[in-house]
Amino acid sequence: MAELEVDVVAADGKVWSGTARQVSAPAADGDIGILAGHTPILSVLREGPVRIVPAGGGAPLAWHVDGGFLSVDDNQVTVVVDAVSEAAAAATSGH
Which N-terminal residues, if any, form the signal peptide (predicted)? Predict the structure, then answer.
């Protein structure tokens, strides 16, 4: 199964880097979900949660962002955010 290479970067440095099965983010015109093989895209982000489902399993990861942009090209996802904070862990787990 194909995976995504993901980098989440804030102004003060790298937030997270690794492989993922899925990335979801608050695009300016609605939430966007990214899976392997997604069409190349560049999207402005609004305030909201960025969620990542790691490729190796385990609990989904989540951060609250204040805006930024997301780039997808050839299974490489780069999320550049203005400001980031840890989202509530309970918001993405529940299994």
Answer: none
Which domains does the chain possess? 4-89 (2.60.15.10)
pLDDT tens sequence across 23-45: 999 999 999 999 999 999 999 99
The DSSP call for residue 28 is T
Distance between CA atoms of residues 20 and 34, nearest Å: 10
Place of tokens 């989202």: 87
CA-wise closest residue to 81 among 5, 14, 4, 3: 14
Closest CA to 8 of 56, 67, 70: 70
pTM strictly above 0.85: yes
